[in-house]
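Researcher: Here's my situation. A collaborator sent me these components and asked whether they could plausibly form a single complex. I don't have experimental data yet, so a predicted model of the whole assembly would be a useful starting point for our discussion.
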Amino acid sequence: MGEIVQTVVYGLTIGSVYVLVACGYNLVFATTRIVNFAQGALVVVGGYLAWWVYAELAGGNVPLVLVTLVIVVLTGGVGVLVDLVAITPLGRFDPVTNISWLVTTFAAGIVAQELVAKTISDTGQTLPPLADSILGWQGSVVADVAIQPADVVLVVTTLAAVAGLGAFQSRTRIGGAFRAVAQDRQAASLMGINPRRVVMLSFALAGALAGLSAVLVAPRLGVRFNIVLNLGVLGFVAAVLGGLGSIKGAVIGGYAVGFVDGLVGSITSDATAWQPIVVFALFVIVLALRPTGLLGRPQVEKV
Amino acid sequence: MIARRVAAALPVLALVTFLVWFGNAQATDRYWMTLGIEALWVATALVGLNILVGDLGLVSLGHFVFFVIGGFAGSIWAVQAWGLDPWLGFPAALVVGMALGALLALTCCHLRGFYLTVVTLAFGLVSTALALLIEGPFGGLQGRPVEQPLDTSFGFLDASNPNRPFVGLYWIGVVMLGLGLFATRNLRHSRWGRAYRAIREAELAAQASGVRTYWYKVSGFALSAGIVATAGVLAAQTNLQVTMLDGTSMVGRSFEWLIFLIVAGVGTLAGPVVGAFVFTLGFGIAIGGATITDRLGAYETLFNAALVIAVVIIAPRGLVGALRQGVGALIGRLGMQPRSVKTAPLPRERTLPRPRHRAGDEDDSTDALLVVEGVTIRFGGLAAVRAADLTVRTGSVHGLIGPNGSGKSTLVNIITGVYRPETGRVRFRGEPIDSLTVHAISRRGIARTFQNVQLCRRMTAIDNVMVGLHGRTRVDLARSLLLPASLRGEERRARERARELLAFVGLSGREHDRAGNFPYADQRRLEIARALASDPDLVVLDEPAAGMNPTEAQALITLVREIRDAGITVVLIEHRMEVVMGVSDVITVLDAGEVIAHGTPQEVQDNPLVIEAYLGERVEPDAAPAVDAGAPVPAGVATDAGGAERPADGDAVLTVRGLAVEYGAVRALRGVDLDVGQGEVVALIGSNGAGKSTSLKTISGMAELNKAVRGEIVFAGERVDRRPAHRIARMGLAHVPEGRRLFPESTVEENLALGGYGRADAALGRSLDAIYDRFPILATRRHMAAGLLSGGEQQMLAIGRGLASDPQFLLLDEPSLGLAPLVAEEVFRIVRTLADDGLSVLVVEQMATRALAIADRGYVLETGAVVAAGLATRLAQDPVIKRAYLGDAD
């Protein structure tokens, strides 16, 4: 019983982190058909910015919710900077035949991290949870597993953010422009859509999402640099598992990876060894059955 | 010739000189020697990675695993567990690496792009985890020492040098890198290398040329992993220790290699060497001994990352690409043209020389070569082809016609194995082929061209044709890599054959031009040459005349006859009546997925069902072929439309003055002047490559050529020649571009809505209703993905999308392309009506007479300049048209 609850709690919380990172990948992928390898770094940059604003600038005397809003705006700006540094200068390019973006986005992530390390802090930090209590509830223990208000905030905020994102992409005109730019940038510009601005917006949203997730996960993972690769890699796995470009896919993929992670952790004593093995197996099976991920659209090509 | 050979040998000479110098000069310096060895193993690993990334176009984030495993296998297991001589560690690592690579490839080579990349990434994570679990042979986190290292005390080395073991390893590394480069150079000039690159450029076309793409990807993957593993042995012998890294470092190191390769120049022979040496030796040499780390201290990572971004942005094709460009520019400045850029095309070879006939071919000319029985296939609930029957007789030209969306291309895709029918059979020479793969069908003797041209755009014309010869050549991968001499005979024969085929389709003298740079009509001819290269018994041509002017279409008729005379059966899908009727022995007519008629051209033309469904009562089926192109308009198009004299005056909506465009060395436009007045239809005509589409693209801003454009474009009173396309579009200018450029994954309705981007919902809704009224078939396909529509439906959608913004000005590029005559007429009629309501139209059209029939005025372009202009009615009679448009016809 304890193991099941443990798995569910762990799967939902860690899964939410992967969902948010995967959505960040998907946003940029949707407009550019590239994978922004700076996404993991953006989360950590957001974490340090939040710590700096909250603990250093304000001395811990402002509500963290307010800080979060500031951070979302700031990391959105960092997202735009990544676009300006890593993608805009490449001009027009075909992401399949010219893979320079792979280098520039990855390197831009390193630059952002290094700048933070040199200016803000290069050691691990902590942030308090967004809420100590929800309507007076201060956490419970179910079958020996502690459930914190912060966990609930994390999951609920994630689902709300994802729902908002989904509505934005499918219901709004700009969302339609996102899809048009993704498919044929030049043709989109003939429709009166400014492709540069759409791409920049997608980077800004991806950055904002990274900032949001940074504050949400800080109570669980802390604010430190060595989570970048892990977040980046597993978020990417989640995005691909669900189907690149699909928001629903990111949710399914993110929680799937989270649950597998939690399940392996509760079954074996050696989770770090078994976790990638199980994820990989799951992955190969899913892609053998569905080559474009669970919800990815198959490529439509007329010959 | 000799000069070119010397120039080609220079980089090799430079590399050898550098390696020998380094090996001698630094022999006693242990620090530089070990760095040199590291550069050599990184270079070798990058040579392996380059096969995957550069040739096959696949990105792996797990290759570092092969490197580590190679170290274990080659220097520990081979000696300590398998009892092999330490020298045999290298081949052992190669074999183990290839096996492991093949294993990984089997699980992911059916995937595309990032999906494959993520599997390799997961592989990187999982293999380290597994290694730590298994522990024994890997030694856990501590790794294992190399207990019996190689004996590198070669006799020729200075025995008194305490650094001697490293010097020995250095020379081993030089030999290893040399072998790797030699093998990849050979690969590049072999059928295997071409097949790899063809997979990267146009996978389906590679399959249709007989390449078993999945297995080729697996082979390339295995080869790449094997080379990387071999490089790992050198690292193990140098460090005398092999350690499995943790998963994330493993991925990180793999990523690092990709960065080295991309920065240096992916896909180039020199890239791996340059990347390895630049990154490994750093800038130490230039800074004079102190490495970059010493100078930058804690800022090293930041500096490196920023530098990498800068290099990739400044030199998008990598350091090697930039260097090559620099040398090319230098040669150009010195006036030493490396190769004549433009050679006059040679006369076309009139007969298709067939090589040996297929064994066991009983040439029974009355025999049914291909039989399609009751074939049905559905897309999204719609039956694209329904219970279709077709019998193609040996030695005939079999026309396949039908209105847009009648299922012609779908049927071809079933015959060639792209789609699998739900019911029914397809038999070729009596054997069922409907469950075979695309490449298997190609090997049985069916070749094809594609409605949407599928060429390897970055490969030369002759290489494209040689891809087609893939199934006719035999050399295996091992010999391709290591024994270039064994290739020579076959390679020379293949090249000779490809040359003959290019000559046959009329592309002599352009063997070494990139396929992507060919004009559209020539790309179609090139596809025909590639299809013929597989020495087929049946060739399926899918709209070969699209985009061809009447003279070219006439030449195509001759070409098709000659293909038949060479004993190859032809299935021809075509909208151009003069082509189909002129060359077909038998014609099958499809309508809405069903066969509605079958017979000789005469019978089909007289069949009332056909006339009603397809040709329409008003069209003369035996309409004049090319020679009559300057003559009156096809029946049914309003000839009185352009009657009003309306010369452009002060109230021109669009004014173009002195427009000049250069792409690279090509001067696409050379000072074009034109005006379009309010409510006027102006036709822009000229032969292929005259600059018509370029003019439209420049006006709408689509070409994104701002810096390459000179002259002035004024639209609605404002200069627009420096404006981006989206701002011009918002001023009320719609462009229906060449190649339609629909959003294939969006539905019909979404496409139309995007056409009206920025308009109020109500107004857009009214426009959409009007568009559906004009093109009723679009209304029935409303929720279907645009990419699944037939060619003609796509064309209607493209035009509809252009109208959805309720534009003030419409640029139309080849509106009749892919449309059945009746629909084309309808489109022209609509354009005329819209113009009468005040829309201004500039139309580019291959069918000059048709365009001039609805136009008020026209301009004739020839090699990027206006050579004639005037009232459409007058221009239609002008001999200048015949010259510009038809070329110097015979």
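Model: Some features of this prediction you could bring to your collaborator: The two ends of chain A are 55 Å apart (CA to CA). The mean pLDDT of chain A is 87.
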